[in-house]
Amino acid sequence: MKKVLSIAGSDCSGGAGIQADLKTFSAHGVYGMSVIVSVVAENTGRVIGIQDVSPDMIGKQIDAVFEDIEVDAVKVGMLSTPECMDEVAAKLKYYRPANVVIDPVMYAKNGCPLMEPAAIKTLIGTVIPLADVLTPNIPEAEKITGSRISSVADMEEAAKAIHTMGCRAVVVKGGHASGNAMDVLFDGKEVWHFDTARIDTKNTHGTGCTFSSAVASQLARGMGLREAVQNAKDYVTMAISHSLDIGKGCGPTHHFWNLYQYGLQEERDGGK
């Protein structure tokens, strides 16, 4: 079985963060592990508080995984402070894992900030160059590039600009745009579009975490980049289509709808 590590914040309501990552890993038939960098008291409506884990403890969690278990992919999510970013970056440089997928989480679904504004400089200079795949949404891509994004052409230009910051590939997610849900992938050579009809629901809590974890899972299982992004897009679209009306705000997606509907599928045993 392939093994995937998530380095991210927690979500006590279960829809995003580490909890969403572990659900996504399980849905893809890979073994999930976690390093918690921040404990987030949040629900479907708001973020109540954030308590960051010390950089030393973050590093020890990463050491505990890598000294014992082979890691086939790493997904990095919420990194709220420069000190946290520096510690995670140092460990990734030391262990040099394959298939590093970084989701530059800056805001919760309800708009509450999850990254210190001063940390963006460290994100750009220290974290982004370590990504095999970076998965910003439009607001995050705007913050990283300092440019306004209002069209698919703007998404393409943003992906190319972010690529020059050192990552190997960029997926600019179009969930915050109007019209169809269009994602743009730039792999350093070609631009690819992934287009699906927008689903009319407010229950999209944790979609970014889920997408990046799905990409990491697919890469761990040996998929090529374009196929991994397409399969992750299909998975997230399914999860949103069957999202759960839980809570008073933006409810979570349904990570296990296919499993509940059809049971385990033999094709998912390919990661043995």
Task: Kindly describe this structure.
The chain has 272 residues and is of the alpha/beta class. Helices cover 38% and strands 18% of the residues. It has a 6-stranded mixed β-sheet with strand order 3-2-1-4-5-6, with helices on both faces. Strand 7 and strand 8 form a beta hairpin. Helix 3 packs parallel to helix 4, helix 5 crosses helix 6 and helix 7 crosses helix 8.
Radius of gyration: 17 Å
Tally of helical segments: 9
Distance between the termini: 4 Å
Point out poorly predicted stretches.
267-272
Q: What share of residues is helical?
A: 25-40%
Strand content: 15-25%
The overall average pLDDT, rounded, is 93
* Secondary structural class: alpha/beta
| Main sheet specs | 6 strands, mixed
Number of strands: 9
Cross-sheet strand order for the largest sheet? 3-2-1-4-5-6
Order of SSEs? EHEEHEHEHEHHEEEHHH
Q: Which overall shape is indicated by the principal axes computed on the Cα atoms? A: globular
Features:
alpha/beta, single chain, six-stranded mixed β-sheet, 38% helix, 9 helices, 272 residues, three-stranded antiparallel β-sheet
